[in-house]
Specification:
The chain is mainly alpha-helical and 184 residues long. It is built from 9 helices and no strands. Bound molecules: heme C (5 copies).
Length: 184
């Protein structure tokens, strides 16, 4: 380390980094979080068995900052006719007819002071990871962070989703790691 010309400011910044790395190490680990949902929606049945593309329901990630969880009218594209005799689909249809949104419990929820944007990540992994480029198939891209959602009946947090996890991947891929990247 070049400390000869270190100004007070550099020292302060270094201290801030050491403190933040220590804090970063104790940010909440989220891996394995798997809340119960109001309707037992299975990614395995939809994205896996029936090969419905992720972006059919999650329109956000490729274009914008946030992905979105689909509204009931997207479900009704199929469930006006598919499996209408089953209990969960009766519940879904009733909610749709009454105009009541399904209250999906958020699985991922970063604190407001952390800035995340799907778009640059999705673009990067579409271009840079072998085998992920098949048109219309996003699974491989999403799996970098969300794991194989299409193989699971219930979504859960597949990685730590804390600062250490973000920064490690940024280091490995030469993405920016200055504080303002994620705290603005
Ligand atoms: C038929 C619609 C549909 C398809 C296709 C689909 N999803 Fe979902 N997804 C949902 C619904 C509904 C939820 C909210 C309920 C839940 O968490 O299980 C959800 C939740 C999620 C969540 C958690 C969101 C949160 O609250 O943090 C992730 C991550 C996710 N999906 C990723 C994917 C990926 C990756 C694919 C493709 C492999 C995919 N989904 C395909 C409907 C879909
Ligand atoms: C592109 C068509 C399609 C869309 C869109 C779709 N589903 Fe499905 N869904 C299916 C198919 C096919 C099955 C399997 C039916 C079977 O087992 O015979 C299914 C099964 C289900 C089941 C299991 C029913 C049971 O008990 O066997 C639930 C619950 C369900 N879907 C909920 C949803 C919800 C909620 C959404 C919207 C977020 C949604 N689906 C969107 C096609 C779709
Ligand atoms: C670089 C890692 C990464 C990749 C790649 C990624 N996600 Fe995410 N995803 C996240 C993070 C981080 C959050 C939590 C964002 C928050 O809470 O503000 C999230 C949240 C979500 C959510 C919940 C809604 C939201 O935006 O908060 C859905 C749905 C989702 N992702 C779907 C997808 C799908 C579908 C893909 C592939 C097209 C994908 N993600 C690719 C990291 C990623
Ligand atoms: C699996 C690897 C990976 C993970 C995990 C990841 N990132 Fe990234 N991130 C990247 C890559 C690669 C880029 C650079 C993309 C490019 O070159 O356009 C990037 C770019 C970004 C950018 C845009 C930077 C800019 O100004 O161009 C932000 C903001 C960001 N990440 C925030 C986060 C946050 C917050 C998390 C954790 C919640 C996170 N990332 C987790 C790989 C990752
Ligand atoms: C690649 C993204 C990324 C970069 C770069 C980054 N952070 Fe973070 N930081 C996060 C995320 C995400 C969280 C939220 C972690 C959580 O809640 O588990 C966080 C949380 C924090 C916290 C709060 C700790 C807590 O207990 O919630 C502090 C303080 C912090 N960061 C400081 C910094 C400083 C200082 C830098 C620069 C040296 C920095 N961060 C760089 C993503 C990043």
């Amino acid at each position: 380390m070049h400390c000869r010309h270190a100004s007070n400011l550099t020292v302060l910044v270094s201290v801030a980094i050491v403190v933040s790395l220590a804090l970063g190490a104790c940010t909440r680990p989220r891996e394995g979080y798997q809340p119960e949902q109001p309707i037992p929606f299975s990614h395995y049945k939809h994205a896996g068995q029936n090969e419905i593309a992720c972006q059919y329901c999650h329109v956000g990630p490729a274009m914008g900052r946030h992905s979105t969880v689909p509204s009931t009218n997207i479900c009704m594209n199929c469930h006006r006719v598919v499996a209408i005799d089953r209990e969960p689909i009766k519940k879904l249809t009733e909610a749709y007819d009454n105009g009541t949104p399904i209250k999906w419990v958020k699985v991922h929820d970063l604190p407001d002071h952390a800035y995340f944007d799907h778009q640059p990540h999705v673009a990067f992994f579409q271009q840079n990871v072998e085998g992920n480029t098949a048109p219309g198939k996003m699974q491989g891209v999403c799996a970098n962070c969300h794991g194989n959602v299409d193989e699971a009946a219930v979504v859960k947090t597949e990685n730590q989703f804390n600062m250490g996890w973000c920064v490690n991947c940024h280091r490995e891929n030469n993405a920016p790691i200055d504080c303002q990247t994620c705290h603005r």
